[in-house]
């Protein structure tokens, strides 16, 4: 089969309520892309028989390969099997091998197997039963009405085991997959989404293979390049050729690839340059330090942080001159620079960085909400200070300040 059109259906009311993040769909899509299978649709549907049946019916009309996760458990609201039986007429039967496994599991753990647990051993007549090496409920593959249906538990650990050990080998043997799809994420900072798209307007408007998809997030933007070819080598070459063209236009803003985010890149640059850093934070309240210490091995580059929210803490903990605060205020270039210099000195680090400003909800020291000063004192005691006016609510202003700090450090360190 060529040009396989796949779709994913995630079952569970808890997904619609936001109680659980739907990580399964992203992971399955990634695995399929590596096999050259294009995913056309993602759906999330609650534990409702009629809605499940409607979604299944529509999927069967438009897709060659349908993946369904969730709704295979023992409770009354696990309705995936029943809804599929309703639209297909395929009978449900017990799988003896799964029943034996379940009974052995409960006996080993000195637990009584309640009757409703037997539901997890139900499969479709004539289906391929997929072994679950890390759980009880099996996966199921059914070939119905020219569509391959793959049913798996919604628990990510179980789904991934079944997908890796059973489903992908089955698809490799069953489908004549000729294409490979490969993606690469290019991450940029210091340029807005609209400016990036404008600079690359000719490349984006004439894209064919690879495709170029801009993806914006707070304080930065990314481009996802996706190539389809007959081999990984050919797909890689197509992406490389497009990346060279992109770099000619906006390469100075490129900071990393794929899953490397700006805080990770700054950490790597600090480590490469044998530099340490300490932070003094007022409005950000330790948010910058928290991002830094999320990195593994951070003790090599991070000497410490001082959260100095009140003016008294700035003068007592950082020993900032009272007269400076009286003259210029805490929300000032002068205060920010003194904080950066002092935290560097106190924590004996090569770099010091500071944050002061107004996150809201009210003005402070006659400064409007969103006013932020960020100052960096480098290893030569040279100061780099910027004033910003951020928009948004309290949390957004704080988040933008932290992201901007990593941007400033990136451009300072890569010189």
Automatic annotation (TrEMBL):
Record keywords: Coiled coil
Recorded coiled-coil stretches: 225-252
SUPFAM superfamilies: CinA-like, Molybdenum cofactor biosynthesis proteins
Statement: the UniProt record of this protein carries the keyword Coiled coil: yes
Top-rank taxon: Bacteria
Domain MoaB/Mog as annotated: residue spans: 7-174
Pfam families with a match to the protein in the record: CinA (PF02464), CinA_KH (PF18146), MoCF_biosynth (PF00994)
InterPro entries: CinA, CinA-like_C, CinA_C, CinA_KH, Competence-induced_CinA, MoaB/Mog-like_dom_sf, MoaB/Mog_dom
Family to which the UniProt record says this protein belongs: Belongs to the CinA family.
Protein name in the entry: Putative competence-damage inducible protein
Organism of derivation: Gracilibacillus salitolerans
Lineage, highest ranks first: Bacteria, Bacillati, Bacillota, Bacilli, Bacillales
């Amino acid at each position: 089969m060529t040009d396989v059109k796949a779709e994913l259906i995630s079952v569970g009311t808890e997904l619609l309520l936001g109680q659980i993040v739907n990580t399964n769909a992203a992971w399955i899509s990634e695995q399929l892309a590596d096999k050259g299978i294009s995913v056309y649709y993602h759906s999330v549907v609650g534990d409702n028989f009629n809605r499940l049946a409607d979604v299944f019916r529509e999927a069967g009309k438009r897709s060659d390969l349908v993946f369904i996760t969730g709704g295979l458990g023992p409770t009354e609201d696990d309705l995936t099997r029943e809804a599929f039986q309703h639209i297909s007429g395929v009978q449900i039967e017990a799988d003896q091998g799964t029943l034996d496994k379940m009974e052995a599991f409960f006996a080993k753990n000195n637990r009584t197997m309640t009757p409703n647990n037997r539901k997890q051993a139900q499969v479709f007549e004539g289906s391929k039963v997929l072994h679950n090496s890390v759980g009880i409920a099996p996966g199921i593959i059914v070939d119905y009405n020219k569509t391959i249906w793959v049913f798996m538990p919604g628990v990510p650990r179980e789904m991934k085991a079944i997908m890796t050990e059973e489903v992908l080998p089955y698809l490799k043997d069953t489908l004549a997959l000729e294409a490979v799809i490969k993606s690469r994420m290019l991450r940029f900072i210091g340029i807005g989404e609209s400016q990036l798209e404008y600079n690359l307007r000719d490349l984006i408007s004439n894209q064919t293979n690879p495709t170029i998809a801009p993806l914006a997030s707070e304080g930065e933007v990314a481009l996802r390049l996706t190539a389809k070819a007959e081999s990984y080598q050919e797909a890689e070459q197509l992406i490389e050729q497009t990346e060279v063209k992109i770099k000619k236009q906006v390469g100075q803003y490129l900071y990393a690839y794929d899953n490397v985010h700006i805080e990770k890149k700054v950490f790597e640059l600090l480590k490469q340059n044998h530099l340490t850093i300490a932070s003094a934070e007022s409005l950000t309240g330790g948010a910058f330090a928290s991002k830094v210490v999320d990195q593994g091995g951070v003790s090599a580059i991070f000497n410490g942080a001082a959260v100095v929210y009140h003016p008294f803490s700035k003068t007592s903990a950082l020993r900032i001159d009272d007269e400076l605060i009286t003259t210029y205020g805490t929300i000032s270039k002068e205060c920010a620079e003194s904080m950066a210099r002092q935290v560097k000195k106190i924590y004996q680090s090569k770099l010091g960085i500071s944050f002061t400003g107004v996150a809201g909800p009210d003005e402070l020291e006659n400064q409007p909400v969103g006013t932020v000063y960020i100052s960096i004192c480098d290893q030569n005691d040279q100061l780099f200070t910027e004033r910003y006016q951020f928009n948004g609510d309290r949390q957004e202003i704080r988040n933008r300040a932290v992201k901007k700090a990593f941007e400033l450090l990136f451009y300072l360190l890569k010189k």
